[in-house]
Amino acid sequence: MSKLTDPSALARAVEKAVAECTITDIHTHLFPPAHDELLLWGVDELLTYHYLVAELFATNVGRLAYENFWHMSKSDQAALIWKTLFVEHGPISESQRGVLTTLRRLGLDVGNRDLGRIRKWFAEQNIDSYLPKVFELAGLDYAVMTNDPFVPIEAQQWDDCKPGVDLLRTALRIDPLIVNWPKACEVMSECGFEAENLDEAGYAEARRFLDSWVARLNPLYMAASLPPDFHFPAAATMASVVENVVIPTARQHNLPMAMMIGVRKRINPALGDAGDGVGTGDVTAVQNLCMKYPDVKFLVTMLSRVNQHELTVLARKCPNLHLFGCWWFCNNPSIIDEMTRQRIEMLGTAVTLQHSDARVLDQLIYKWAHTRKIVANVLTDKYTDILATGWQPTEAEIARDARDLLGGSFEDFIAAE
Ligand code: RAT
Ligand code: ZN
């Protein structure tokens, strides 16, 4: 394939490569349609996304009591959010804009602001054909679910052998084990695993519990969301469970451990899922884990913008550390742009730039459309800079690099022995 020598041809080639790149979405909260009501989709779910619930209360100060909102039906909640955030105020936040991008790309007219018509269109969709259509519009080969055996309704689906879909792969989510050992013990004991104390017997039962779920799910990785005060090593329960349960299991099954660090859970409990906050995490904990266990692989994302530079430097030092995604409060264009530049400047293609964190199927469409635009801009700048040195990339090379950044490097990391 011919080399690109002209800056404007190069820019067009980069835009095309990123637009056409097949993406692997490595962290979502989606489920197969057969898993009861767990798979969320459609306009009312889009509008009641917890990011938008927080924005509703931020906008509607003093005019809406939390309990009144939570007592409303989903459809009334969605109508209120539409009225408040889309009709009475400009929908210019990232999550508000995301709803509009999604509807537009599905071919719906958002210009007339007619929620009734939009609802009618969704009511006519069949989820079995709609799901692959959304994946196609988003340009994904597959997405990774979050499968939490500590949530009874989720575990039930696997007990009942409900069918999956090829577009969704598994990840074993284990938060309670690390952050709430008593609760994890309750769930494990209901399933016949008698973990009780933080001692060798308890750790062994917890490992046996994880082994059983690894066998059942065949996950791509294990994962947990951790608070800003997660430290390692430490005399705390969290560190003991990581050392005695998580690390041996990860090693035994060659399963990376994904750590999502920096969430302060429920700082405003009245907001439900929308009530979590952010705190600066401890990158040294990640460093200590990576150095102490060089034979274990760690996938890491951090929630605080403040942590990003230190974490990126650390990833240059630890081949067993792979960074991913602009997580949650970092998933805003200004921060994605900054993080993407910083990571490429220090890691080249050895990073997974983004995950969607989609909780609602249709969100895949906007999350990836918005990300592609930023990644294309950043890559255009980077290739233009190297073009000025006389290095002339080909279209195939640019496509290769885009794929690495949006799924290829993740797959290589997962596959590494
Ligand atoms: O982004 C989100 O929707 C968060 O609420 C969390 O789900 C977070 O991504 C997590 O996986 O804990
Ligand atoms: Zn998530």
Describe this structure in words.
- The protein is an alpha/beta fold.
- The protein has a domain at 43-124: uronate isomerase, domain 2, chain A.
- Helices cover 53% and strands 8% of the residues.
- Helix 13 links the parallel strand 5 and strand 6 (257-261).
- The model has no long low-confidence stretch (mean pLDDT 98).
Descriptive labels:
uronate isomerase, domain 2, chain A, 417 residues, binds D-arabinaric acid, binds zinc ion, single chain, 18 helices, five-stranded parallel β-sheet, alpha/beta, globular
Fraction of residues in H or I helices: 40-55%
Element string (H = helix, E = strand) = HEHHHHHHHEHEEHHHEHEEEHEHEHHH
Supply Rg. Answer: 22 Å
- Strand line-up across the major sheet: 4-5-6-9-10
Point out poorly predicted stretches.
none
Distance between the first and last residues' Cα: 33 Å
Per DSSP, the total helix count is 18
Enumerate the distinct ligands: D-arabinaric acid, zinc ion
Number of DSSP-assigned strands? 10
By helix and strand content, what is the structural category? alpha/beta
Strand share of the residues? 5-15%
Q: What is the average of the pLDDT values? A: 98
Q: Using the alpha-carbon principal axes, give the shape.
A: globular
Report the CATH superfamily of the domain at 43-124: uronate isomerase, domain 2, chain A
Give the structure's gist in a few sentences.
This protein has helices at residues 7-20, 43-47, 50-59, 66-71, 74-87, 94-105, 115-123, 127-138, 152-159, 175-179, 181-190, 200-217, 237-253, 283-292, 308-317, 333-347, 363-387, 395-415; strands spanning 23-25, 140-144, 168-169, 172-173, 222-226, 257-261, 263-264, 277-278, 298-302, 321-323. With 417 residues, the chain is an alpha/beta fold.
